[in-house]
Amino acid sequence: MPGFPNTPDFTELNTPVRQELDLRNLPVEGTIPPEISGVFFRAVPDPAHEPMLEDDTGLSADGMIARFLINSGNVDYAIKYVETARYLAEQKAGKALFGRYRNPFTDDPSVEGVDRTVSNTTPVWHAGRLFMTKEDGRAYEINPKTLETIGSWDFHGALKSQTMTAHVRIDPETGEMFFFGYEAGGLCTDDLAYCIADKNGELVYEQWFKLPYCGMMHDFAITKKYAIFPLFPTTADLERMKAGGPHWAHDQDLECWIGIMPRYGDVTSLRAFKGPKGVSAFHILNAFDEDDDRVCLDLHTAETNMFPFMREAGGVTKQNWEIPGSTQRWTFDLSKDDDAFEIIDIGPPGDMPRISDALHGRAYDHGWYLSMNPEGGPPLIGGPVGTAFNALLRLEPETGRLDMMSLPFESAINEPVHIPADDPDHEGWLLAVVDRKTGDNEYKSELWVIDGGNISAGPVAKVIMPCRMRPQVHGWWVPMATYKDAAAV
C-alpha cells in the first residue's frame, strides 16, 4: 500500500488491511465440537492512516475489535474500528495527526490534549461489559452485539488513574477484576494505581504508590493472597520525549523490580524484590501461593527487550534471534527479610501464554504458549515484534513435560484462547488464528480448533477466512450464555 513505510511494522503479515467487515456462515473444514459456543473477541491493530513518521511502530496502529461468533458449528465474523478520540480526530482531518509512539510532543498542534490511546491491545469482558484496552490510557467500552464504540470508560467517574493495564486479572471464584495503571498520574510519572472492581463492575478499591523508576509494566499477577507487580528496565524520560525522542529506551544495566502485597491489603505493606539487570518480560503464565510465605510467578523472560525500537533506543543492537530467553519460575520467600528470590528455568522461550481461566492465581499443572520451532523454517514477518511464532507448546511446569504443535512451513500462529470442556477430565479446546504465506505478500488465514490435551495432533477443525487478516495482539473468550446477557446492547 503506497505511503506506508517499507518496514516490518507495515509489510508482509503486518501490511495494513483497513477493512470493516461483517461475514456470515464461514466455511468449516472438520467438525467444531458442539460445546464450543460463544464469542472469540480479538484486538487487531490496523492503522487507518499513513503514519507521520517513517520509523513509526505498529504499536501505534488504530485498534480494531474483531469477533468470531460460534454457535452450533456455525461461524460468523465481524471487525470494526474502535472509535477512540484519536481515531475520530484523524478521520475528520483525513490524515494522521499523532506522531511518535506515546510522545505527545511530536503531535500536530491541532490535537493537543486529545486522548492519544488507540485501544488496540486486549479485549476485556467483565460484569457484562466489553472493553478494548491499551496501557497508555483508559479503556473504551464496546457494544458486543454491534461492535459500536460507546466511549471512554472510567467506572462512572470513580477511576482516578489516567491509565489502565491491558492485562487485567479476574478471580475465577469471586468474579472481581484486579488491574493497575502505571504512569497513573500522567506522562512519565512513577505513580502506580492498584485497583479492584467487584463482580458487578463497580470500582471498590484504588490505591496509589510510587515505583522505583518509570518503567515498563505490561502485565501483573494475582494469587489467592497476593498481588504481584513486576517492573522491567525499559524506562521513560520526559526530557528525552520533549526533544522528540522515544518514550521507551531499554536500560541494560538497571535491575528489574518486583513488588508483592496482600491483594486486599494496604500499599504500605508492599514488599520490594530486586531482580536481574536488563531482563525483560511482557507476559505472565500464572502465579500462585506455594504455602503461607512462598509465592511463585511463572513468566517468559528474555535477556533484553524483544521490541527492536525499545532496545535500540537504549543502545542494545542485538537481533531478536540472538537474544537468549526461557520460561522461568520466580519464587519469593516472604518469611525472609532480604530482597533476593529463586529463579529456575521451567521451559523453552516463548510468549503469549494461556491457561484455563478457572486456574488464574491457583496452582496448575499445565499451560500453553507460543514459541519458535527451528525446524519450521524462517519465521514470517509479522506481529507486534516483527517476527511471528510458528509453534504452539503445552508445558507441564512441575514435570517439565513438553508437547508441541508445529505449523506447516511458512505459517504463523496468533495467541490462543481456551474454552473449557464439559468433561472435567478433558483439558478443553484452544482457538487460534493461523496465517500461511501463499505467494509474494499473499497470505491465507484460518481459525483453528485444537484439542488442548493433544495439540500435536493438529486442528480438529478449521474455519476458512475469505479475507486477508492482520495479526492480533490478545484475545478473550466469552461463553454464549454470558454473551447473551451483555449489559450494553
From TrEMBL:
Cofactor binding notes: Binds 1 Fe(2+) ion per subunit.
EC annotation from Swiss-Prot or TrEMBL: 1.13.11.-
Cofactor dependency: Fe(2+)
Enzyme class: oxidoreductase
Source taxon at top rank: Bacteria
Keywords from the UniProt entry: Dioxygenase, Iron, Metal-binding, Oxidoreductase
PANTHER family cross-referenced by the UniProt entry: BETA-CAROTENE DIOXYGENASE, CAROTENOID 9,10(9',10')-CLEAVAGE DIOXYGENASE 1
Family membership noted in the UniProt record: Belongs to the carotenoid oxygenase family.
Protein name as annotated: Dioxygenase
